[in-house]
Specification:
Elements lengths: L1 H29 L15 E7 L14 H7 L3 E7 L5 H10 L17 H10 L4 H7 L3 E6 L18 E4 L7 H16 L5 E7 L24 H26 L6 E6 L30 H4 E2 L1 E4 L7 E8 L3 H8 L14 H4 L8 E6 L2 E6 L2 E6 L19 E5 L10 E3 L12 H17 L5 E6 L6 E6 L4 E6 L5 E4 L3 E6 L5 E8 L6 E6 L2 E2 L5 E3 L4 E2 L8 H4 L14 E6 L14 H9 L5
Parallel strand pairs: 1-5, 1-6, 2-9, 3-4, 3-5, 23-25
Antiparallel strand pairs: 2-7, 2-8, 6-8, 10-11, 11-12, 12-13, 13-14, 15-20, 15-25, 16-19, 16-21, 17-20, 18-19, 21-22, 23-24
Helix pairs in contact: 6-7
Pfam family, one: Sulfatase
Keywords: Signal
Organism: Leptospira mtsangambouensis
């Protein structure tokens, strides 16, 4: 009996040991971070992300020039109402690779040069650009295409972390070269056991439109086409043929099934005469882009073939380009960083979406917000940069309300001179309420401007304050009711007879210059040595140049000592650093000329 009891105890111990070992292994496996969903990297799906530059959302399947894309759509999810959150290549590409709005990145979307400070700031603050994140999680990462904004080589962009980058922006006839290099990369990939991420970026049909001979003959339509649109469609036909070759090569190398394939565009192209001259920039944008957020500029295709699936599906609801980054991570089993502002499309694909997505976009001179088919677009100086395009003046900022169900081509928007004027427009109450709500959404979604504060302890009944900036305008945020305020854009003058301490708060709009101020008590100017600043209360006289950091307090309010007649501090970070003196090099200018960006 004793030996039997020992045997039972041993068996019990053995099973207990196995259970604890399994539990421990499972627990430690769950803590491996981004690889938790798909722990075996060799089973992860590959990702092929294809961008067809300037491809509008109404082209595929409509003109007989996309037979390969039409066939692809038979085994893919088609998103019918997909909108990009920026309207030209560099900001749109950074939206792709960060999952955040363009203004959440330090790289400007106003001018072509990327300054040294912007590039350094991007590398310092953007920890998870998609190619870098995938590379860190055992993916081989490749870029093949024409996109000069994905390298910091020419002063036009930033390096987002590809293992191998083959950029053809220096070539006049790049499309076939891109296809050939893609074949070489696929050969390399097929001999590697690692999952891959390949970003394939065709520049056609970006202007200038120069399709090879014969491709315009493939157009099938009753629409009367002008020469430019015919050539545009000819280039679409050309790229479609090249993509057919890439698809066949993927299948021949047995890479097709286990690859997630996304096909989209970085922006559309303006082709409606009503938008020939942008109301926001005054620029001729006919057969161009980047000067507004009308639908023909932001509505682009999105086709997604899921790994190891052949389902055909069509989704009508709005999706955004900020959603693509988290979608890729979702289907590759990686954790989405908390900083990402987009939302994976998986819940839509699996018919589990419970809330409708809303739109927020930014481009030169323009911000916009939309729900469904209704949009409010604003002429905006919010993200301007000093330089040859802007010398620092801020003009009127009007709004356009559009309903593309009632006005499909967005030809007849409701114009609002400023938000304060909406009360006098005698609109339907529901419409007025909606426009005000959209306006508040634009304000809520844009990054906040730094807020400057002046705390003043008067010595007399005669206090004067003067605030000046070299460019932009001063926007008062808060001040006492009993002060006399005179606002003149770059200059604000304040007078008061109060003897109690008071505060003044203001913004510099846009945030490209630093304010100077002067305070007088009974006509006697307060010297810098008696003005204290920043979190630690350092004398203003202690800093002669580059004093931004000295003024900052972060989110905390400084402790203002009784000895401080005037205390100045800044809440919300440093002003944007941008050099208007930077000139593009010869290589960069040649690239931009070849791509039709500059004349």
């Amino acid at each position: 009996m004793k030996s039997k009891s020992v045997s039972i105890k041993l068996k019990t111990f053995f099973f207990l040991f196995c259970f604890l070992s399994f539990s421990f292994c499972k627990k430690t496996g769950s803590d491996t971070g981004p690889e938790s969903n798909l722990p075996d990297t060799t089973k992860r799906p590959n990702v092929l992300w294809i961008v067809i530059d300037s491809l509008r959302g109404d082209i595929i399947g409509q003109y007989g020039v996309t037979p390969n894309l039409d066939l692809f759509a038979e085994n893919a999810v088609t998103f019918k109402y997909h909108l990009v959150n920026a309207a030209w290549t560099r900001p749109s590409t950074l939206v792709f690779f960060t999952g955040k709005y363009a203004s959440a990145n330090p790289v400007n979307f106003w001018d072509y040069p990327t300054t040294k400070s912007e590039v350094e700031s991007f590398y310092r603050t953007e920890k998870h650009p998609l190619p870098k994140l995938l590379k860190e999680n055992a993916f081989g990462t490749y870029m093949v295409g024409n996109n000069p904004f994905l390298t910091d080589k020419f002063g036009l962009g930033v390096d987002v972390g590809f293992d191998s980058l083959y950029d053809f922006s220096n070539y006049n006839e790049d499309t076939k070269k891109i296809t050939k290099k893609t074949f070489e990369v696929l050969e390399e990939i097929s001999n590697d056991k690692k999952p891959f991420f390949l970003f394939l970026n065709y520049n056609d049909p970006h202007k200038p439109y120069t399709p090879p001979q014969g491709f315009t003959n493939r157009i099938q339509t009753k629409e009367v086409l002008d020469e430019k649109k015919m050539n545009y469609l000819g280039e679409v036909a050309f790229v479609d043929e090249e993509l057919g070759k890439v698809f066949l090569e993927l299948k021949n190398k047995n890479l097709w099934d286990n690859t997630m394939i996304l096909i989209t565009a970085d922006h559309g192209e303006v082709m409606h005469v009503a938008h020939a001259i942008s109301p926001f920039t005054g620029t001729n944008t006919y057969y161009g882009h980047g000067q507004d957020l009308f639908l023909e500029n932001i509505h682009v295709p999105l086709l997604v073939k899921l790994p190891n699936e052949t389902k055909k599906q069509s989704i009508e609801t709005m999706t955004r380009s900020i959603d693509l980054y988290p979608t890729v991570l979702d289907y590759t089993g990686l954790v989405v960083p908390k900083s990402v502002q987009g939302k994976s499309l998986r819940s839509l694909i699996e018919i589990q979406e419970t809330t409708k997505r809303t739109y927020y976009g930014e481009t030169r001179f323009t911000q916009g917000y939309g729900e469904g088919h209704e949009f409010l677009l604003q002429r905006s100086y919010r993200f301007h940069e000093l330089g040859k395009f802007w010398q620092g003046s801020v003009g009127s900022e009007f709004y356009l309300y559009l309903d593309s169900k009632k006005d499909p081509n967005q030809e007849n928007p409701l114009r609002i001179t400023n938000i304060a004027a909406i009360k006098g427009m005698k609109l339907q109450p529901d419409l007025e309420k909606k426009i005000l709500r959209f306006w508040k959404q634009i304000r809520a979604m844009e990054p906040k401007l730094p807020l400057y504060h002046l705390s003043i302890q008067p010595e007399s009944k005669d206090t004067e304050v003067q605030i000046r900036i070299p460019s932009g305008t001063i926007r008062m945020a808060s001040y006492p009711d009993d002060v006399v305020l005179e606002e003149k854009g770059k200059l604000v003058q304040i007078q008061t007879k109060r003897t109690d301490p008071f505060e003044i708060s203001f913004e510099v709009y846009p945030d490209v210059s630093f304010p100077e101020f002067t305070v007088w008590f009974s006509k006697k100017q307060i010297p810098k040595s008696e003005i204290f600043t920043g979190y630690f209360g350092v004398s203003l006289a202690s800093c002669k140049s580059n004093c931004d950091l000295l003024y900052e307090t972060g989110p905390k309010r400084p402790i203002i000592t009784p000895k401080a007649k005037v205390y100045f501090w800044k809440e919300g970070g440093q002003k944007k650093s941008y050099s208007s003196k930077q000139e593009l090099g010869t290589d960069a200018l040649e690239i931009l000329k070849k791509q039709g960006y500059v004349q």
